[in-house]
Amino acid sequence: MSESRQFCPRCGDPVESGATVAATDGRAPICEDCYFENFDLVDAPDRIEVLVCATCGAIQRGKRWVDVDARDYTDVAIDEVAEALTIHVDAEEFEWRVEPEQVDETTVRMHCLLSASVHDRPIETRATVPVKIGHGTCTRCGRVAGEYYASTVQVRACGRTPTNHETERAIAIITEYVAEREADGDRDAFVTELDETADGVDAKLSTTQVGRAVADRIVRQLGGTVDESATLVTEDEDGDEVYRVTYAVHLPEFTPGDVIDPDDADPVLVRSVQGNLKGVHVTTGAPYEAAFEDGEAPDARRLGDRGDAEETTLVAVEDSRAVQVLDPETYEAKTIPRPDYLDSDADTVWVLKSRAGLHILPADDETAATDETD
User: Fold this and answer.
1) Where are the beta strands (DSSP E) in 258-362?
2) N or C: which terminus of the chain has fewer CB atoms within 10 Å of its end residue's CB?
3) Is residue 23 part of a domain?
4) Are residues 276 and 245 in the same domain?
5) Would you say residue 26 lies in a domain?
6) Residue 20: CB atoms within 10 Å
7) What does pLDDT average to in each consecutive run of 10 residues of the chain (374 residues)?
8) Is 276 part of any domain?
9) Distance between CA 294 and CA 278 in Å, rounded?
C-alpha cells in the first residue's frame, strides 16, 4: 500500500492515506495509534452522592427534586450512573452493562462494562462508580409536613346551605384536580386540609394557581361566582412580600330541580344554573332563560323542588291549555294549566302544590338534571 506524504505530529511515523484522525487541538491530523493511545471511551465520576427523600422517594438533582420510578436504591444508583456517564463524541453503537454490588445499606458499587465502535475499531472499557445514598426531605414533603398552604377555597351558597350533591361535588372537584396536577408531574400541587363544614366546604391548597383553578372549575360545574382576596403573611428571603389568597365561591341561590316564581308570576322549574339561570315554565312548558339585566338569576321566590312533588291522578284533559287533576291533599278535582311536556295518555302526573297553586312537573328528571361537565 502506498504511503502518504503526511507524518503524525506526535510520533513522527508516516501515516497511510485514509488512516489519519482529526487532531483534537485543530492542528494536523494524527495517526490512529496515537489517537487511541490516550483515548477514553467514557468519562465517569469517581463517586456519586444521591439525596433521596425519605418520605416520597424523590431524588435531588441540582436544585430540583425529581420523582423517579425506582423500585429500590439499586434502581436509583443505575439511573444516576447512566445520567453521570459522558460518552465520547466519536463513539458509535454504544452499549453498556452494569453489575451492582450492595456494599451496605446506603452504598452501591456499580461495575460497568462499556463498549462501542470508534472509527470502525471496537473499544471496550470498564469503570467502577460507587454510589452513596443519603436521606433527606424534599421541598414538597417538607411543606406537607409543615401544613403549608398558599390559598384557601371556601364554598358557600347564597341565602342557603349547599346541598349534599354540591358539597360532595365540590370535594370531588378539589381532589380530582390536584390528582391530575400530580399525575402531570406538578410536585407543588397538594391539598393541605379539606373539611366539610356546616356552611359548605373549606380547603387549604398548596399554591394560588391550584386555588384559582379549583374555584373556577367548581363555578363551571355548579354555577355561581368567585371573589378573591389576598392577605399579606410574610416576606421571603429576598424581601418580597408573600400573600395568601382566599377564593370565596358563592353558589347560586337556586339549584336545578327548584321551582321558583319570578316577577312574571309564571313559575319556572330550574334546569341549569351555569351562566345565567335556565329552566322551563311549568304552566306552558315554554323554555325560560334569565334576562341579561337579571344577572345570573332573577329576583324570585322559591316555591319548592322536585322532591316536594307528589303523584296524583290525571282526571281529564279539558283542552290544549287545561287539564283536571286530583288535589293530592283534598282529593278534589281541580283545573290547572297544561304544559306542553304533559303526556295526555298518562293516568297519573307529578304535581307541586305551593302558594302559587298546583303545577304539573315533567315526569322524568331531564329538566332537573344537574350539569357536571368541566
Assistant:
1) 258-262, 268-272, 278-281, 287-289, 300-305, 310-317, 322-326, 333-337, 348-354, 357-361
2) N
3) no
4) no
5) no
6) 17
7) 63 66 58 77 85 87 79 79 84 85 86 85 86 89 92 94 94 97 92 95 96 96 92 78 92 92 84 88 91 70 91 91 93 94 91 92 62 47
8) yes
9) 12
Nearest to 341 by CA among 324, 359, 363, 356: 363
Q: Are residues 317 and 284 in the same domain?
A: yes
Classified as helix, coil or strand, 240 is: coil
What residue numbers bound the domain in which 122 lies? 39-138
Domain count, the chain: 3
Instruction: Copy the grid coordinates of residue 156.
Output: 358557600
Q: Which helix (H) or strand (E) holds 58?
A: none
HSE-CB for 33 with a 13 A CA cutoff: 10
| Contact indicator for 44, 127 with CB cutoff of 8 Å | yes
Residue 283, amino acid? T
Quick one: 107 and 171 in the same domain?
no
- Tell me whether residue 81 is in a domain: yes
pTM: 0.71
